[in-house]
Design a protein that fits this description.
With 94 residues, the chain is an alpha+beta fold. The chain has 2 helices and 5 strands; from the N terminus they run αββββαβ. The longest helix is centred in the first third of the chain and has 10 residues.
Length: 94
């Protein structure tokens, strides 16, 4: 649970139900799901053992007039402590 709270606090990730705006396309998306998961980092070059990194998965749904929640375009991304992809691509609207 410590890693989850650390990622949420440091990265400022949104909660389920919040709206975010894509910086690249200026479209509005709603966070539909948030869950804890593990991201594969590939094999360790020395030991050949698999390596894993803790991450948070966010599922996004594109908000469009006349389209019910969950229908239409959806996508999901993994966010961890060592990436800045959320800050680079999204702005929390509400």
């Amino acid at each position: 649970m410590k890693e989850y709270e650390e990622i949420m606090q440091l990265k400022g990730l949104p909660n389920v139900g919040q709206l975010v705006r894509s910086k690249k396309y200026n479209t509005i998306w709603r966070i539909m799901e948030k869950r804890e998961t593990w991201r594969s980092l590939g094999e360790d070059p020395k030991t050949k053992e698999p390596r894993w990194n803790y991450a948070i998965f966010l599922s996004f749904w594109r908000v469009q007039l006349g389209v019910e929640p969950g229908r239409g375009k959806t996508m999901g991304f993994l966010y961890g402590l060592k990436d800045n992809t959320f800050e680079e691509n999204w702005v929390i609207v509400s």
